[in-house]
Design brief:
Blueprint lengths: L22 E2 H8 L9 E2 L1 E2 L9 E4 L7 H6 L4 E4 L12 E4 L3 H12 L8 E2 L4 E2 L4 E2 L4 E2 L4 E2 L4 E2 L4 E2 L4 E2 L4 E2 L4 E2 L4 E2 L2 E3 L4 E2 L4 E2 L6 E4 L2 E4 L6 E3 L4 E2 L4 E2 L7 E3 L4 E2 L4 E2 L4 E2 L4 E2 L4 E2 L4 E2 L4 E2 L4 E2 L4 E2 L4 E2 L4 E2 L8 E3 L4 E2 H28 L1
Parallel strand pairs: 3-4, 4-5, 5-6, 7-10, 8-11, 9-12, 10-13, 11-14, 12-15, 13-16, 14-17, 15-18, 16-19, 17-20, 18-23, 19-24, 20-25, 23-26, 24-27, 25-28, 26-29, 27-30, 28-31, 29-32, 30-33, 31-34, 32-35, 33-36, 34-37, 36-38
Antiparallel strand pairs: 1-2, 21-22, 38-39
Length: 357
Amino acid sequence: MGPENDIAPQPGDPRFFRRAGPFTLAAVVDAAGGEAPSRRLMLHGVAPLATAAASEVSFCLNNRKNLPALAETTAGAVIVHPDMADKVPAETVAIVAGDPLVAWAHVAALFHPLPPAVAGIHPSAVVDPTAEVDPSAEIGPLCVIGAKAVVGARTRIGALASVGAGVVLGRDVRIGSHASISHALVGDRVYLYPGARVGQDGFGFAMTPDGFHTVPQLGRVVIENDVEIGANSTVDRGALDDTRIGAGTRIDNLVMIGHNVRIGKACVLVAQCGVSGSTVLEDHVIIAGQAGLVGHLRIGTGSRVGAKAGVMGDVPPRTEVVGAPAQPAKAFFKELATLRRLARAEGKRSRNSGDTD
């Protein structure tokens, strides 16, 4: 049977995802942190609105575009916002939650929990005798663990990953296949996706009449708890100060973080954006895809940088900037509207002039 006929239409293919359950409706409601009428119901899995069966739970974002799919669903239960509870079909249980997406994340994790670490060191791994590896950690095939590195409890290190000398990894850390990390102190529940590179030299050099002279990069990378760094993203270590990533920050795939950058708590950096050296992102900053930030800037708390923006100056707190060079979004779109009006007016004058001729 070819792969085109062997792909499960539902999420959580057991070949790739651990499965748990079934669970009572009460257990699902408890995981969601929501409310629902009492009913005898066993739920066996999660599924999209359009394909969910009576034994499955789904969810619906608070968006009117989803109303047709919600009206036609045959799911046993649906997680919805209070504003949409009355739109759920009579045969389906409405699990009401203030934030359906967060509730869904908890329920999906209930049915598909992450597999636990398989304690032990693979025979092909190379572990320096001075490294400290917690007995509950999992060290995968062909890994390299350097001298005096520390690997915390239940940490999982994927195949062909490299953990450099002196690196400290906290508890429940996940290091993906082919990732490398050096010169770093890492907190708990951090996830480096496959191919991520952390701790390499920053881009530091002096220009002389005879060419470039490399400046030693003597800082570290400090990663706080609950950070995720996406596949093939890079985080350079500091030149003198540390490069620091605040707790809860999410970094997408293919993101570049320069040396001495300081990222606050719960920031989001989307694919292919780049942050140049010594720039500071305060808490809850969002940098959209392909945006670029020059060095030595300060991006204020709660600010948003639009996709492909070129940021060349500081951004005040709670400000949205777009464009290249970046400017406040309202000013940018006002200028864009003005240009469109001028272009239309010029086109109209040209057509009238042509009619006169």
